[in-house]
């Protein structure tokens, strides 16, 4: 078995688990979770899904270096660093914020420890670079550029596979960052179902981002419900109510959540399912990983 085969075999670790929402035990609906957080402690959730076909492209084309982009606490950067170490590829992370250093926080320190070369750029430069995509040249070397968050059509192909082997559900719910996973899920869900997405960025234009990455999904937008009031102030921000919900949820379930991504999506589910009649509905929550957020929350790094 090759190194990439060994890495991709980790996708088999995911499970389907029934779980409960705090104070919702008496509600007559079934809530399940796609436990992609079990794939790997650093390449968890949707991260390996989105990297899968990008890494296969690099290996098949004999590209030796991956170049990708992320912020100071990027789970995508961490996942890429860990995956590249495991498969033997060099990787470069372009980081938003030229005031940062390799030891500015636990995520960047871990990326550096895993062998990722970190290059820190201004926010202005970053905004023009972050969507760089495909095979290109960097200082005379052929490299594979992967956009911020793995947001390209190869990432979408991987996200489509999240629902492979699962039964149908009435409602699917996922936290939303770059929209790549949302697009893949929209392609994959049955025609009778809805996809609820919870953007974790304030003022985020989900539809614009979705159609820019993949215009072919436009005919599925009628199945999309955007819950954009649960960002709790913006990316990485939270509220007392969110933290109380997360504490209660983590206390009642084996599956854990955090305040940056998955906690906000589950919190939105708890609000909407309690306020509306969803009798006999089957709901699937897609756990996209990001549990380093628990560490960041407790350590205040």
SSE layout:
Elements: H1 3-9, E1 16-18, E2 30-35, H2 46-60, E3 65-70, H3 75-87, E4 90-96, H4 106-113, E5 117-121, H5 123-129, E6 134-138, E7 141-146, H6 153-160, E8 171-176, H7 180-188, E9 194-199, H8 206-213, E10 224-226, H9 240-252, H10 262-275, E11 282-287, H11 292-299
Parallel strand pairs: 2-11, 3-4, 3-7, 4-5, 8-9, 8-11, 9-10
Antiparallel strand pairs: 1-2, 6-7
Helix pairs in contact: 2-3, 2-6, 3-4, 6-7
Brief descriptors of the model:
five-stranded mixed β-sheet; Rossmann fold; disordered C terminus; alpha/beta; 2 domains; 11 strands; 37% helix; 11 helices; 301 residues
Briefly summarize what is shown.
Helices cover 37% and strands 20% of the residues. The protein has 301 residues and is α/β, with parallel strands linked by helices.
| Mean of residue pLDDT values | 91
Radius of gyration: 19 Å
CATH topology call of the largest domain: Rossmann fold
**Share of helical residues:** 25-40%
Task: Give the number of DSSP strands.
Answer: 11
Termini separation: 38 Å
What's the number of helices? 11
Strand content: 15-25%
């Amino acid at each position: 078995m090759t190194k990439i085969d060994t890495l991709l075999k980790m996708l088999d670790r995911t499970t389907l688990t029934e779980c409960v929402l705090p104070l919702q035990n008496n509600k007559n609906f079934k809530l399940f979770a796609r436990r992609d957080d079990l794939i790997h402690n650093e390449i968890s959730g949707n991260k390996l899904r989105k990297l899968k076909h990008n890494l296969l492209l690099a290996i098949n084309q004999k590209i030796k270096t991956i170049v990708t982009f992320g912020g100071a606490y990027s789970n995508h950067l961490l996942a890429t660093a860990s995956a590249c170490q495991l498969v033997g590829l060099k990787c470069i992370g372009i980081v938003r914020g030229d005031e940062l250093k390799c030891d500015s926080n636990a995520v960047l320190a871990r990326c550096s420890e895993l062998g990722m070369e970190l290059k820190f750029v201004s926010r202005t430069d970053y905004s023009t670079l972050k969507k760089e995509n495909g095979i290109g040249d960097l200082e005379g070397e052929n490299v594979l550029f992967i956009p911020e968050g793995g947001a390209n059509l190869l990432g979408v192909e991987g996200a489509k596979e999240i629902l492979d082997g699962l039964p149908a559900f009435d409602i699917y719910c996922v936290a939303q960052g770059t929209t790549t996973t949302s697009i893949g899920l929209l392609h994959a869900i049955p025609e009778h179902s809805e996809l609820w997405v919870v953007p974790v960025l304030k003022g985020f234009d989900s539809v614009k981002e979705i159609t820019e990455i993949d215009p072919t999904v436009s005919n599925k937008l009628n199945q999309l419900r955007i819950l954009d009031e649960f960002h709790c102030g913006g990316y990485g921000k939270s509220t007392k109510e969110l933290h109380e919900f997360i504490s209660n949820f983590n206390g009642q379930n084996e599956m854990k959540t955090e305040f940056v991504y998955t906690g906000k999506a589950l919190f939105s589910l708890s609000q909407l399912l309690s306020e509306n009649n969803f009798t006999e509905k089957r709901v699937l929550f897609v756990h996209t990983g990001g549990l380093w957020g628990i560490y960041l929350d407790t350590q205040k790094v």
